[in-house]
Amino acid sequence: MQIEKPEFFPKELPIIVEDELFLYPFMITPIFISDEENLKALEVAIKNESMVLVVSSKDEYRLKRDFDAIYHAGVIGTIMRKVSLPDGRVKILFQGAYKGEILQTTSSSPLMAKVGILDAVLYSDDKIEALSNVLRQKVKTLSQMTHYFPPDLLRTIEDSVEPVRTSDLVLSSLRLTKNIAYDFFTQKNLETKFFDLIDYLNKEIEAHKLEKEIKTKVHSKIEKTNKEYFLKEQLKQIQKELGGENDREEEIAEYRKKLEAKKAFINADAYKEIKKQIDKFARLHPDSADSSVVQSYLDWVLEIPFEHTAKKRSSMSEVQKQLNLDHYALEKPKERIEEYFALRELLELRGLNNKVNNGVILCFAGPPGVGKTSLANSIATALKRELVRIALGGLEDVNELRGHRRTYVGAMPGRIVQGLIDAKQMNPVVVLDEIDKVAKSFKGDPTAVLLEILDPEQNNSFRDYYLNFNIDLSKIIFVATANDVSNIPAPLRDRMEFIFLSSYTPQEKFQIAKKYLIPQELKKHGLKPSEVKINDATLKLLISDYTRESGVRSLRRKIADILRKVAVAILTHKNSDDKILINNKNLEEYIDKKVYEIDEVDKKDYVGIVNGLAWTSVGGDMLKIEAIRIKGKGNLQITGQLGDVMKESAQIAFSVIKVLIDEKKLKIPSNLVYKTSKDDDSDQIYNKYNLHIHVPEGATPKDGPSAGITMATAIASILSDKKARSNLAMTGELTLSGKVLPIGGLKEKLIAAHKAKITKVLIPRKNYERDLKDIPKEVKDELEIVAVDTINDVLKEALI
């Protein structure tokens, strides 16, 4: 096929559509043809020995063969060679000659059209020459930054004297989109074309300068951690090949799924914070330190059971039933708990539970082993809620409750949030055990956090530092326990209602052991009731002589000791079907030596020895206060490791007795008054003797004002040489005017007197009037309780 001269155009030519390339007239290009329309156009060209017009398809219409899918300008050229390929395609070698444009379509199958030559308009040679020089300079600058222009092409551009050819050579080397290439291709005004092309080259140069600058900065940064960076990249690729990357994607998808499941149950701030951390985790490299921190956070926070709450309504009757089932005695504590849940049930029935805040925090206070925690267990069982026990004894780090900030190594949520996760519900029963033993240190004051946790007005938006969003604790039933209420800070005490559990009487312990402890321990030790029996008398002996406590914890341990020995005996005598009977005779075979909690009183009366009653954190106790006189000058010595208050009580007692002696209300035997010198006319005995007061068990610290009347009685006894009744005990605070003031812990003290076989007890009038109703009937039946108003009343009853 011959290249026809331009003067033969316009002319009808077949059209071949190229999907990949944008051709220019000077190119000799291989073109692969596989579609039917292009093959038809090729056949027409070969048959008629005519030239063809090669045009590009529009990107959005690739492989489509109609005039709407193609650009209406292309290259007119000849087919130099045609080769049929084994895969059915045809390869032609096309040589471009002129730029052509479609003037009029003549056939749609194959594509044929009347084609004309696309010429440049007239232009100024001088101006084009200047523009060509600028263009060549820009090309040279760009070639130093990129690989767009091979050396041979650069020389061709330098040597070219045809402006149109020069611009086409440059355009053919640039990486242009088809639309931009077509705009340049069809531009007939050569000056405008050169200006646009130079402007485009300027943009490319600036872009490559910026790219080079960024690469330089990145390269310098990579060099600092070059080895680590490339190793991590290699590891990332290895993980990807092994499927590790997929595992991470699955992990992130699982986190998002869990969050969406909880979305309806959490507030907007919580959702936003968790989502932010998931997005951050997705961006982080798996081996970065932050990745493990964020993953640990997500593992914690997505385990919080926002969507789970116990649905059972509060039921006073069920709580009452469970309390009676699990506990003997404790009538007042059980009554107050029933009132608490009666109020909750009434509010729920009337739909006011969300409008009226009745968030009273119950605190069970009393000695160890009296059933404080087990009451909370019964509440949880009755309500069918999980029980979470948080031991506060010795807690001094505020972050243990508030949660650690995630900037710290080993950070984790606070104990409250951890308790919710363990309980798997948002409204469990939470027992704050030993709230009176919270410690204050340089790490903060945990009681300040407890104020927020237990305040019904604040705990609906408690902020845990680890979570970094507010969480609602108002649905939780909080129950606190304490041994000594006085150790709880006043603001915290103000937020709680105290239910006091006092010591058990021996009879109550006996019933608890029979109904609860022995059946429970038999079950724990795998024993049957038919295999072992503990006599009632032996059980009472175990209570009176082998345990030292206010509750029954020690008693439970003693029963367990016996049953372990029983288990050994059963295994040793496998063939014996006899029931093992534990009685007073063989008890020592199963248990160690006796522990005498309170010595029984002496039957003999002594001068200067008086029985006092004391309250301790483990119940009541009886104190023998001893006094002796030594010839001297009226000094008072006090021993027994007494606290300041008790020492002051001794000084007050001594002064009160001096007044009674001066007023002749306490008679002093004449044989005790002696002359210290020839000039001594004084008959004041307290100036002639030094007194020594001692409270036995000197290793045990003792304090409190309630031994005032006991000390006064001991001083009066030794100075008047009158015996004090050994079957009588007393408790009461003494004033300088001789009045007897009320004291606390009366129930524990009277139980201690009962255990010590005391028959008569002196107590302050106020306590007699208001507290006797709380004393167990068996104690009141066996004690003669006398109310006293002054020290005269006390001495009248105590001294013989």
UniProtKB/TrEMBL annotation:
GO molecular function, one term: ATP hydrolysis activity
Pfam families for the chain: AAA (PF00004), Lon_C (PF05362), Lon_lid (PF22667), LON_substr_bdg (PF02190)
Induction: By heat shock.
EC number: 3.4.21.53
Entry's localization field: Cytoplasm
The keyword Phosphoprotein is annotated on this UniProt entry: no
Domain Lon proteolytic: from-to ranges: 604-800
GO terms, biological process: cellular response to heat; protein quality control for misfolded or incompletely synthesized proteins
Active site per database record: 706, 749
Main location, first listed in the record: cytoplasm
InterPro entries xref list: AAA+_ATPase, ATPase_AAA_core, Lon_bac, Lon_bac/euk-typ, Lon_lid, Lon_proteolytic, Lon_Prtase, Lon_prtase_N
Gene Ontology cellular-component annotations: cytoplasm
Binding-site list for ATP: 366-373
Keywords: ATP-binding, Cytoplasm, Hydrolase, Nucleotide-binding, Protease, Serine protease, Stress response
Superkingdom of this protein's organism: Bacteria
Top EC group: hydrolase
Family statement: Belongs to the peptidase S16 family.
NCBIfam families: lon (TIGR00763)
Subunit organization: Homohexamer. Organized in a ring with a central cavity.
Entry-linked HAMAP family: lon_bact
Main function: ATP-dependent serine protease that mediates the selective degradation of mutant and abnormal proteins as well as certain short-lived regulatory proteins. Required for cellular homeostasis and for survival from DNA damage and developmental changes induced by stress. Degrades polypeptides processively to yield small peptide fragments that are 5 to 10 amino acids long. Binds to DNA in a double-stranded, site-specific manner.
Name this protein carries in UniProt: Lon protease
The organism of origin for this protein: Campylobacter geochelonis
High-level lineage: Bacteria, Pseudomonadati, Campylobacterota, Epsilonproteobacteria, Campylobacterales
Gene behind the chain: lon
